[in-house]
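Protein modeling request. Please complete all fields; requests missing the sequence field cannot be processed.
Requester role: graduate student
Desired output: 3D structure, token encoding
Chains: 1
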Amino acid sequence: MNAAAFRQVFDYHLRANAMVWQLCDALDDARFDQRDDYGHGSIRAEWMHLIDTDLVWFSALQQRSAAVPPAPTASRAELRQWHDTIVANVRAWLAVLDDADLFRQPIREPAEDRSLFVWQVLIHVINHGTDHRAHLLHRLHDLGVATPPQDFIFDLAEH
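Delivered output (159 residues):
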């Protein structure tokens, strides 16, 4: 297990998220906000959840307080800006991550997360993102948007 491998997988994760954001551009606001009984209730709510999750986990890894996430009524442009800011933060943090960092336990709050190693949190964030991208891709498909695969192996072939 090494930091370079995590950077590679996170590059895929962040590219896959960007691809799904791009697909969302095909939707009007009504379809972006359309209620659904699955997942978090709408494409907007699914993105809000992903943004908040990444914000919380990476703030915890950096031992700083998480910023207040955007309001549920934030515009799509504001949501995208939040996402892009988090991506820039994640990329900067990963750029200096070294192999020893993977075995640190930096999280202090909440107490139940103190035993987590950095590598465990990173795997969680990647898996969590894959799960919610699948929700988003399914919703987008149901709304008539052509959706490509999100497979890591295809990303490796391209990059």
